[in-house]
Every structure is written in C-alpha cells, then in structure tokens.
Design goal:
Elements lengths: L4 E4 L6 E2 L3 E2 L1 H12 L3 E4 L5 H11 L5 E3 L4 E5 L2 E4 L4 H13 L15 E3 L5 H11 L3 E5 L4 E5 L4 H12 L6 E5 L5 H6 L2 E4 L5 H4 L4 E2 L4 H15 L7 H6 L2
Parallel strand pairs: 1-4, 1-11, 11-12, 12-13
Antiparallel strand pairs: 2-3, 5-6, 6-7, 8-10, 9-10
Helix pairs in contact: 1-8
Length: about 240
C-alpha cells in the first residue's frame, strides 16, 4: 500500500483529559506533512475547530467536521453535504418526549445537532424510526450527534480526498470511537488506539495499546516504521518523549 494521507480523529485520539491536545503527538503530525503526506482531521467537532487546529499546526488545510457533514477549506469556505433541517426536527421531537435531552454548548453547527450524553440512544432511535426521519444518533464519546443518515466520516473524507487527488485506499485512518468505523472501512489501512472499545478495535486492521495521544504516537510510529517511504527526522524525537 502506498500511503499518501492520514485521517486523524481528534477527541480521544489527539486529545486527552477532556479537550487537552496531546502536545507530543503534534510534532509527529507536522513531520508527516513536511515529508509530503497529507494530514487531515476528521472529527465530530465543528470543521472550523479542526481547520483552526490544522492552520496553527501546519497540516493540510482541509478539515472534515460534524462527522462528515461539513468540509472547511478556508475561514470562509464550507462545503455542506446535507441540510440541517431533519436533525433540528428530530431534536425538537426528542426534547418533547424524553427527559434530559438538551443541547451541548459547542461551536455553531451547520449540518447537525449536538446533545449532552444524558439519555438512552436506543430509546431515542426508537422514536426517530417511528417518526420516519432520515437521521441517526451517534456517540462520539464526546457528545451525541444527530446526523442525516446519509452522512458519516467516510463520506466527508472521500469528498475531501477527491479534491486532493488521493484515493481512500491510499489513506491511513486512526481513531477511537464508533464514529470512526466508517473511516476504518473506507481507508486502505486503519488503526484503533487503546482507549477504543473491543467492538471498534475489531473493525480496524490493527490496534495499539497506548491510549489517547500516546496511542496516536504508537500508531503513527508503526506506520512510519513499516509503511512509509520517507519521514522527517523529527518524528523520531516525538515518539521517544
């Protein structure tokens, strides 16, 4: 497999202890970009948050957010792959029928609704199915997301990679939650990090023991040692810290 790009989840993969970025992994991601590989953040967070992270880190300024619903390529350019209307309607229905359904304070969303993890997804999906709404509720371990049923991280990644002239088979996906499974299935290689549950790990081609940012470093180092033709020397420094 010829690797040209990396699809990196943010929450639980690049972050630890809530929303703190694992600093030691950043230099390795920067080294990948300097060596000619594309590093794309694919997240349940806002694509704007991911774009800002890429901008300051120096990685590819193409960010996939809202679990694949939005692709941001500049501070003012956002490609919306679906309309938010069905997600908003689903939220209003759930709020009227289930206690403790409430919005999570997040960056503004363009295609999804983000909720606190305070209720049963199974109960909520039963209601959604009976209403016939084309939405799903997914758990990123950071929040519950109401997304259009046609959207997942792989959908957004394919659109972004196509713009870069890269095929999904040339991409390595690294993540930790059920929302990353579509990435694992779409990409040529995939790694689940140590804090992923067994179901998520079973869908990846490989897994590592390290958790959060340490797991990301372990995963990147494995790919660097076994699959890459070139890599900036500073990657070795980051992996030994």
């Amino acid at each position: 497999m010829k690797v040209k790009a990396f699809a990196i989840d943010i929450d639980g993969t690049l972050t630890e202890n809530g929303s703190k970025v694992h600093l030691q992994s950043l230099s390795m991601l920067r080294a990948l970009e300097r060596s000619g590989y594309r590093v794309l953040f694919v997240t349940g967070r806002s694509s704007i948050e991911a774009y800002i992270l890429a901008m300051f880190l120096g990685t590819t300024r193409v960010a996939i957010g809202e679990n694949g619903g939005v692709i941001t390529t500049s501070p003012t350019e956002h490609l919306l792959l679906v309309d938010k209307g069905y997600s908003e309607k689903a939220y209003e229905i759930l709020r009227s029928r289930i206690a403790d359904v409430r919005l999570k304070p997040v960056f503004p969303r363009m295609t999804e609704v983000v909720l606190e993890r305070t209720f049963s997804i199974d109960d909520a999906m039963d209601i959604i199915r009976k209403e016939g709404l084309p939405v799903v509720i997914v758990d990123s371990m950071y929040a519950y997301h109401i997304n259009h049923e046609s959207i997942n991280k792989a959908v957004g990644l394919r659109v972004a990679l196509d713009r870069l002239g890269i095929r999904p088979e040339e991409c390595v996906a690294i993540g930790d939650s059920a929302t990353d499974i579509p990435l694992f299935l779409a990409c040529g290689y995939s790694i689940a990090i140590g804090n992923a549950d067994d179901g998520v790990k079973s869908m990846a081609k490989a897994s590592v023991k390290g958790k959060n940012g340490n797991g990301l470093i372990e995963a990147l180092q494995y790919v660097a040692d076994n699959m890459l033709e070139k890599l900036d020397d500073c990657s070795n420094n980051s992996s030994n810290k």
